[in-house]
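Quick log. Single chain, no ligands specified.
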Amino acid sequence: MTVLRRGLSYREFPDGSHLDGSGYTIHPGDGIPFTFELLMRPYASLRVGDEVADIAGRAWRFDGPWDWTAFDEEPSGEGPAWPLVLLARAGTPCSVEDAEAVAASTASGSHQETVRDWMALTEASPTP
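-> predicted structure:
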């Protein structure tokens, strides 16, 4: 597992340190204790590869919190407009429960608000 210090979205290489450009490495099986605290999980109800429709009628593929691709091939702009409707999961129609979870989790707020919340916690910005 690789981690970066607060305030960094990536490390440029070379940077004059012993790091390889990706950050600090943690080896969970090496016996050194560590603790994780979940501060935020953007889009917890979505999975990589999910296909959604936004309130503006655009269809999107979710490839991670900061990686959205619009099917209409127009520029992504500020990302999908909430609320979202889950159309497909892993290329197949989604379950009612999954669709309800996505709708509920995006009923208020916005993609840009999610980005701002993450930036406030990390003091970093999503990489392009």
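The chain is about 15% helix and 20% strand.
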